[in-house]
Amino acid sequence: MSSPDPYRIAIVGRPNVGKSTLLNRLFGSRVSIVEPTAGVTRDRIGVRVELPCYNRTRVVEVIDTGGIGIVDRHDLGPHVEEQVRVATMAADLILFMVDVRDGVTPLDVEVARRLRGLSKPVQLVCNKADTEKFNWEVDAFRRLGIVGEPIAISAQNGDGMVALVERINELLPPVEGEAERFRPSLKLAIVGRRNAGKSTMVNALAKEERMIVSEIPGTTRDAVDVILERDGHTIVVIDTAGIKKKSSFDDPIDFFSDTRSYRAVRRADVALLLFDATAPLSGLEKRLARYVVDHHKPLVLGANKWDLARGKMEPEALETYLATQLPGVPWVPLSFLSAKSGWHVEETFRLCEELFEQSSLRVGTGELNRVLERALQAKNPSSKGHRVQIRYATQVSERPPRILLFVNDKRLVTKDYLRYLENRFREELPFKEIPMHFVLRDKQDAVLEET
User: Fold this and answer.
1) In this model, does residue 255 exceed pLDDT 60?
2) Domain of residue 252, CATH code
3) 162: buried, middle or exposed (CB in 10 Å: 19+, 13-18, 0-12)?
4) Which of 211, 223, 230, 289 is 20 to 30 Å from 372 at the Cα level?
């Protein structure tokens, strides 16, 4: 009996965004080539590759397309239409690639407009994000209107490939014989300084229920995924080596171990920041906490080794201390635990699950706008002679809750006012302990879409 045809993944985008480099990365670093085949047209090529899929591998066909728009800008219409049509006609999943260094271009807008009408999943992939600076630029591409979280990668050096492969597995149907229960319902990153007790925490969570411990092939610098079966659900706990001061790096391995923590945050649904309750909070931990929140990920602060600190410090004193060290995020929950003894480990994990559930909620547009109206009445956004109008709000996605605000001119909306809105929304909506992500949209965005 012949095996079923593999799922097809088409890589689409304008010229020079790195489509071929991504194909080569998937082709070479993801275990093995199964069968190279000629493309349907001269500017398309497909290869069959193996991708890690939870506790096994899956074969997919990845199709590279010629760059969209290798013609004069005014003649784009038919060319773009044909390229997108041919590339996506037989595909089960579209990877829409853009170049984070170039920012949003008119060609990106044109491709996005055509992809938004498809009835199949589209994943936005922001390439060439090989430094933290460019990782921050990813949010600008949300204006393209592609549903879901964009993924930042560097196809050249492999950064972000684990997150991309995970997302591919989520968007494609399970492989034959693969039960849905192997799809993780929660990805929890345990991060912090070295010797904070992260590995001990992983072991405490795993117990005898531990199923698989594996490092994804070809990604030796990435975090180790521990897959756990709990209450009928599959949980992925991302273990990290921990962060340390750059001045104390001994070799390149230290550099990769450090960046591993930040990459784990971007992959995760929730981050648990473990710190030693017997020691002062360091600048590294403060920076890591800020990174989690700035990337709109739910955060739990885990005061580990509390059995050693108890008697020397009251819980209220630690809460007050943390409020001074981490201003601006008083809504982040704190859990006292001892990973070594197992005390409050389960409670801490349940708290992480609660935050995951909060981030998965969707609020109706009517309720959202009633809260917005009350917030606007209490505090007007206009200032310095500029009239700011926030006309409408709608939640467009979850994990994290992403709220689109339609305004007259997004340049006039200050960060302080967005923080005010977030606090008001947190008071009245079921997002009490998680960050929200506000995206502004004005007339200029609409004009770009129509060009």
Assistant:
1) no
2) 3.40.50.300
3) buried
4) 289
Supply the mean pLDDT for the chain. 79
For the entire predicted model, the pTM comes to 0.68
Tell whether 210 and 340 lie within a shared domain: yes
Q: What is the largest CA-CA distance in the chain?
A: 75
Report the Cα–Cα distance between both ends of the chain, in Å, rounded.
Answer: 51
Query: How far apart are alpha carbons 91 and 104 in whole angstroms?
Result: 25
In a domain, 1, yes or no: no
Give the whole-angstrom CA distance, residue 408 versus residue 263: 36
Residue 319 has pLDDT above 70, yes or no: yes
Q: What proportion of the chain, given as a percentage, has pLDDT over 70?
A: 75
Residues 194 and 337 in one domain: yes
Distance (Å, rounded) from C-alpha 20 to C-alpha 18?
6
How many other CB atoms are found less than 10 A from the CB of residue 330? 10
Contacts of 325 (CB under 8 A, 6+ apart): 281, 286
Domain enclosing residue 444, as ranges? 365-450
* Residue 199 backbone phi and psi in degrees, to 5: -65, -35
For the segment 203-218, the average pLDDT, to the nearest whole number, is 50
pLDDT (tens digit per residue) in 124-173: 999 998 876 776 678 889 888 888 889 999 988 888 888 898 889 889 88
Pull the structure tokens for residue 231.
């209450």
- pLDDT at 388 > cutoff 90: no
Instruction: Say whether both 158 and 203 belong to one domain.
Output: no
Annotated binding-site positions for GTP? 13-20, 64-68, 127-130, 192-199, 239-243, 304-307
Instruction: Please give the residue that has the higher pLDDT: either 100 or 42.
Output: 100
Query: Structurally, how many domains does the chain consist of?
Result: 3
Least confident of 51-60, 187-196, 393-402: 51-60
pLDDT bin (cut points 50, 70, 90) of residue 219 is: very low
